[in-house]
Design brief:
Order of helices and strands: HEHEHEHEEHEEHHHEHHEEHHHHEE
CATH superfamily of the largest domain: Spore Coat Polysaccharide Biosynthesis Protein SpsA, Chain A
Number of strands: 12
CATH class of the largest domain: Alpha Beta
Oligomer: single chain
Number of helices: 14
Distance between the termini: 31 Å
Strand order of the largest sheet: 3-2-1-4-8-6-9
Number of domains: 2
Largest sheet: 7 strands, mixed
Radius of gyration: 22 Å
Strand content: 5-15%
Amino acid sequence: MIIYQLFILGSLLVFLGIVLKNLVDFQDLPAGCEADPSGPMVSMLVPARNEELNIAGCVSSLLGQDYPDFEVIVLDDQSADGTLAELHKLAGGPQGGRLRILDGASLPEGWHGKAWACQQLADNASGDLLLFTDADTRHRPDALRRAVKAMDKSGADMLSLTPAQQIETFWEKLIVPLVYHILFSYLPIGMVWKSRSPAFCYAIGQFILFKRKAYERIRGHRSVRCNLVEDVWLCKMVKRAGGKVVAFNGTDVVSCRMYRGFREVWNGFSKNLFAGLGNNVSGLFALMVLVVLFYLAPYGFVLSALLQGAFTRELFWLPAAQIAIAVCIRIIIAVKFRQQVWPGLLHAFSQVILLLIAFNSFRLTTFGRGPEWKGRSYMFKVDIQ
């Protein structure tokens, strides 16, 4: 028992070490200077499907960039709400001359919706740099200028920013930060920059800036047309092609309301979780075991100790230390990404919900019609190894 408890404690200390190292390695987006008038033209590309609540705020923030040479192209992906009407209002406004609106073509077999929309956008873009951003994002006026400068200085072929997440409801605050918890606890961010290995990939699809040549070298979104979590797979493709990928903390320039309420959180994570593991059953099972051993079992030991009145190292003190480290990690990450701290105290509860989402993600892909998002179902091959 003592060996087991020391192993769990040691592993959590390793995770804490990765987090602390990531605090150093994960750089804030450089402040930059005034934009170079001779800088490359940038096409800012927004796929939009049923985004009536978001699209005006997103596109207005893009049109308000202080970068000198850019265009904004939005693809209306067969929306059934007022998305297109909102876009036409913007096109008739004072900055509407920089905005182009595309009507999305029908989804071909073998593609998922976002990849197809992004490919159509890229095919119609004129810029030397391509910025893919989601319709639920907001951008400060200096976001593009600073990102272009960072890409130039780093020599990157692909640059991704991590936005601040706007989380308002209880369930959003409990679950959405797990995205950063998983990435920041298990992935050495510095290796994304330093290593050419596709094993070290970090990208957030809410803000990805490409050099056009690098994008075309990997055949654009055609290379990830079957991947629901296309951002990470784009990173892998760039690295496999010999390109350089960098990632910055962009919480001071970009924000995003990823999901609204429990239903969207549940459906969105169910869509992405199993797909993010490559639909690999072994990988999903390993994640679920990790969650139980590292984040839930310690509470069982502490509760047992309290009920028995047995405050031994094995039953109480070592598990209590494990709980403290796990909560500390969650709070450190919350502070880093400008999130509220109190949901970190409910870390165990969030892990229980994560397990339920993981099972649902597996169920939908393996036994159901596939994950659903914005009125579409996606059914792809499951890796049972």
